Amino acid sequence: MMKLTVVALAICLVSAEANIVKTLYPGLRWGHGQTANINEYIDNTVQMLVPFIQNNGLDPMKLPDISEGFEVKPMWVTYSALLKLHDGTMTGLVNLSRSGDQQVNYFAKMLRVKVQLRFEDLEFKYRYLVKVMNIGPTGGIVGSLNRLDVVADVLIDFNNDEMQLQQLSLTNIGRLRVKLTGNALIDWLVNPVVSVFLRIFDTTIIKEVGMIIRSAVQSAIDNINTNLKDTIARLESYN
User: Fold this and answer.
1) Phi and psi based region of residue 208 (left: phi greater than 0; alpha: psi -120 to 50; beta: remaining)
2) pLDDT tens digits, residue range 125-157?
3) Lowest-pLDDT range, 13-17, 40-44, 100-104, 189-193?
């Protein structure tokens, strides 16, 4: 998702040779398999991601419309039902910080950076429609997620002046709390609707968030690769 970990990479890591290797760690030499901790560097630059997140549709993030069938059994008869989710959004990606130690590895004029960022107090909102027994109650669903970690693995190859996104994954997904808003549902519908939403969140929504974030990060990296040499020269001039 979703400027998650990756603009810190895209923006901060393009300047790796100039800002990290030359300035922060002048003693490191290319070609000897060196490793360095960049916790302080990430802490000082992570807030640079906030404008990127806001300007690239990551916060708020538009979520897809989803329909999911399920069954309910109010008494002795089982009925087919349908939950339709629409007008979904996710917010909270601007609440980010470093998660764990951040390392960079140098070898053969290549810089590999693995950054893990934590996003807290995320909120997923949907409008819903339930179709069952010729009735169609509507309302809102709000899911509150206490934390979400995003891990980005980026390789900067100075042999050909190219940045590559090796991996971007969502990990350490916290606990999702769900509440219904608007019109009150019939008691025997509440638990089934919440259960279906939790299933949709695990199988569809969170995967969609990951794809949207990855797409935004990959797009940023593609743009950087287009004029990588000019970008590095410009960042070096700031020092």
Assistant:
1) alpha
2) 999 999 988 778 899 999 999 999 999 999 988
3) 13-17
Between 3.40.630.30, 3.40.50.300, 3.90.550.10, 3.15.10.50, what CATH number should domain 7-237 receive?
3.15.10.50
Cβ–Cβ < 8 Å for 116, 149: yes
Rounded CA-CA distance 172/170 in Å is 7
Structural domain boundaries of the chain? Answer: 7-237
Residue whose entry in the numeric block shows the structure tokens 């000897």: 32
Q: In the predicted model, what is the mean pLDDT of residues 32-46?
A: 81
Amino acid residing at 184: A
- The SS3 call for residue 123 is strand
How far is Cα 168 from Cα 108, in angstroms, rounded to an integer? Answer: 23
Distances 52 to 26, 47, 48, 171, 213 between C-alpha atoms, Å: 30, 10, 7, 21, 11
